[in-house]
């Protein structure tokens, strides 16, 4: 036990001596260095190392003392900014109101992509499960898109259903545009009027003389 005590005492003396040497080295280095350039920062320089190892943990107590007021000020400004931002962009949408609008939402004449944007915006406010959201999204689609989806494999993810419906709707719209841009069909040959054919003259029938103006018959 006595040997352990002596060993700890020697270790403490060695640490103290090493700390003093480090302090002297820092002072000599600062003296030999070039004159410091004036800095725009108003932060006070940290204190020199006191030789106590426990003060080397973390950022040091001096940081908390000097920066506490600044941190409190920045936090208060952040809270005020978030409050103002919430007041500007929050439309007062409640979960019940979002659910009511979501149940009555339908695609109508617009594209599935526009319908999906509004649907997902309201769905984020309801907190519903994906199964319920998929059913509500499918019910709001147009009949033509529903007819195409029923022939495809039904996914268990809402994002997959939205992507599938958006892709099918885009293809259907492109197909309708192709049909509108196609030239009109030409009439069939059976309905065409045959060209008029002049009768051929035979040898027994002399050609008729052209009518001469100014002569009496």
Automatic annotation (TrEMBL):
One Pfam family this sequence matches: Retrotrans_gag
Residue span(s) of domain Retrotransposon gag: 81-142
Renumbered residue ranges of the record's region Disordered: 173-217
Protein name (Swiss-Prot/TrEMBL): Retrotransposon gag domain-containing protein
Annotated organism of origin: Coilia grayii
């Amino acid at each position: 036990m006595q040997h352990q005590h002596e060993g700890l005492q020697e270790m403490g003396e060695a640490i103290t001596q090493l700390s003093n040497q480090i302090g002297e080295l820092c002072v000599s280095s600062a003296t030999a260095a070039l004159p410091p350039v004036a800095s725009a920062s108003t932060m006070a320089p940290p204190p020199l190392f006191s030789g106590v190892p426990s003060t080397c943990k973390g950022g040091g107590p001096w940081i908390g003392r000097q920066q506490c007021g600044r941190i409190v000020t920045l936090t208060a400004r952040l809270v005020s900014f978030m409050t103002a931002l919430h007041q500007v962009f929050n439309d007062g949408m409640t979960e019940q109101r979002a659910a009511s609008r979501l149940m009555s939402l339908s695609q109508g004449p617009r594209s599935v992509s526009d319908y999906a944007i509004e649907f997902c915006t309201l769905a984020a406010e309801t907190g519903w499960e994906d199964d319920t959201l998929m059913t509500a999204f499918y019910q709001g689609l147009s009949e033509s898109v529903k007819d195409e989806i029923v022939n495809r494999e039904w996914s268990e993810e809402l994002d997959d259903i939205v992507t599938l419906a958006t892709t099918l709707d885009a293809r259907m719209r492109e197909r309708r545009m192709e049909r509108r841009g196609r030239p009109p069909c030409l009439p069939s040959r059976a309905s065409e009027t045959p060209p008029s054919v002049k009768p051929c003259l035979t040898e027994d029938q002399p050609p008729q003389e052209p009518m001469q103006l100014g002569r009496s018959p």
